[in-house]
Amino acid sequence: MRLTPECGSVHTHSVLCDGKGTLAEMAAAAYQAGVRHFGASGHSHTEIPHDAGNVLPADLSDYRSQLLALRDAYAGRMEILLGIEQDSQSSQPVPDWTDYWIGSVHNLYDPRTGKHHCVDWDREKLSACRDELFGGDMLALTEGYYRDVAAMAERKPVILGHIDLVTKLNRGNALFDEEAPRYRAAALEALHHADPDKTLLEINTGAISRGCRDTPYPAAFLLREWRAMGGQVILTADAHSPETVIFGYRQAAALARAAGYRESVLLTGRGWEPCPL
Questions:
Q1: How far apart are CA 31 and CA 24, in angstroms?
Q2: Using one digit for the tens of pLDDT, what is the confidence trace for 95-136?
Q3: Across the chain, what does the average pLDDT equal?
Q4: pLDDT exceeds 90 at position 7
Q5: Is residue 49 reached through a cis peptide bond, with omega within 30 degrees of 0 on the bond before it?
Q6: How many alpha carbons fall within 13 Å on the CB side of residue 92?
Q7: The whole model's pTM is what?
Q8: Nearest Cα to 8, choosing from 202, 240, 261?
């Protein structure tokens, strides 16, 4: 059987963090969409005030038990994978019972004030981060963001999450020039800290479904460099609602092909499997 991109959806969120569907509703939507390898990747717990209600609770036992029940319910029909999206500012380690984990940077920390700044919430908060933490220099903010991405990449996550998330609120270069040499140098440096033998780079359509971007993460220059490094990609929807479990996969596949890829990776309980584009 020829594998298709629609066979897997492993970057998903539920009402247990900041999603709009229960785990059961997300899994059911995935199955109806043709997904045969579904992964839940709730946001790891943090103590950051603005994360309250948007991340998993400190006690993950209910999250795990619900996923194990879904695994039993879909046995022989759809594989259920237990995952987590580990935030760079989470003090909790990745649980040892996960099948995979996504490593992501959503917040930058100011050691002088003890305050966390979210890079993808809204432009007001991002501008406050720029002004308070980086003296009004937006390119310096992007460099600080990519330093944290580099540190996360060195931890060898199974999937490196939306590597250029810092561009989410930058439609039309509203805040900085994405062609700027300083910006591109910082992004490429972070990418070079990832291990292409251990980590998949995701092509993530989540910001398109939420109306923030017109194209998937990451930018084409990062995809081309990752391919030159021998790295592989995985298509993800970063789904926060049942109707978006495979949102934009054709667009993501087209971006991958334009960067020279002929296949993506399907994440399964048996490991990485090729998925023709």
A1: 11
A2: 999 999 999 999 999 999 999 999 999 999 999 999 999 999
A3: 96
A4: no
A5: no
A6: 19
A7: 0.97
A8: 202
φ, ψ for residue 205, nearest 5 deg: -100, 5
The per-residue pLDDT for range 48-84, each reduced to its tens digit, is 999 999 999 999 999 999 999 999 999 999 999 999 9
> Tokens 């990776």 sit at which residue?
265
Three-class DSSP labels, the chain: CCCCHHHEECCECCCCCCCCCCHHHHHHHHHHCCCCEEEEEEECCCCCHHHCCCCCCCCCHHHHHHHHHHHHHCCCCCEEEEEEEEECCCCCCCCCCCCEEEEECCEEEECCCCEEEECCCCHHHHHHHHHHHHCCCHHHHHHHHHHHHHHHHCCCCCEECCCCHHHCCCHHHCCCCCCCHHHHHHHHHHHCCCCCCCCEEEEECHHHHCCCCCCCECCHHHHHHHHHCCCCEEEECCECCHHHCCCCHHHHHHHHHHCCCCEEEEEECCEEEEEEC
**The one-letter amino acid at 231:** G
Measured distance CA(94)–CA(200) in Å, rounded: 17
Going 223 to 227 to 228 to 231, the CA torsion angle's sign is: positive
